[in-house]
Amino acid sequence: MLIQESQFAAAQAGDPVALEYLLVKLHPDIQRYARYQCQRSSAVDDVVQEALIILYRKVGTVRAASSLKGWLFKIITRLCMLPALKLLSGMEDLKNVENSAYLAQIPVDELRIDLVHALESLSAVHREIILLRDLQQMTISEIADHLDITQGATKSRLHRARAQVREYLLAEKSA
């Protein structure tokens, strides 16, 4: 299926007739791509619908009519992966709930001791960022200013530090 450059340009400019023509013309290709990419046949209709919506909204970002099919194929591939990604995310959430439930069962005094040991096991950089955020209750921007680093670096360090603490506490669980 070949899309004329003039028809494509009109669709990009927002011409409703050209846009409808483009959606109707590409619908069979989108369905074929979705059937090929999606393992579950129940997801195909949803992927087609979502791909058409994305095409409608983002057609102006595509450089040329000749690159439209490749762009759509990438969109459909990503849309087909969404259910798997959501499942993995849900499994991670479940793991976090299980870990939280375990930590909630530990007596408070014992948890405090384990937390102190976890903080002592951190590098000075990671220990400092946790203390600034969780003990002194500084905001991300205040910590970034205090440490003379970017807010992104602050968030990254804090995330890594908390992950190390969590890992330490959960390692105690299995010991």
Description:
The chain has helices at 5-12, 16-37, 44-58, 68-105, 108-121, 124-135, 140-147, 151-174. The chain has 175 residues and is mainly α. The protein has 2 domains: 5-86, Orthogonal Bundle (Rna Polymerase Sigma Factor, Chain: A); 106-174, Arc Repressor Mutant, subunit A (Orthogonal Bundle).
User: Remind me, CATH topology of the largest domain?
Assistant: Rna Polymerase Sigma Factor, Chain: A
Helix content bin: over 70%
Q: Can you name the CATH architecture of the largest domain?
A: Orthogonal Bundle
Give start-end ranges of low-pLDDT stretches.
none
Number of helical stretches of at least 4 residues: 8
The overall number of domains is 2
| Computed CA radius of gyration, to the nearest angstrom | 25 Å
> What's the helix-strand series?
HHHHHHHH
Query: Strand percentage, roughly?
Result: under 5%
Family: Belongs to the sigma-70 factor family. ECF subfamily.
Keywords: Sigma factor, Transcription, Transcription regulation
Protein name: RNA polymerase sigma factor
InterPro entries: RNA_pol_sigma-70-like, RNA_pol_sigma-70_dom, RNA_pol_sigma70_r2, RNA_pol_sigma70_r4_t2, RNA_pol_sigma_r2, RNA_pol_sigma_r3/r4-like, WH-like_DNA-bd_sf
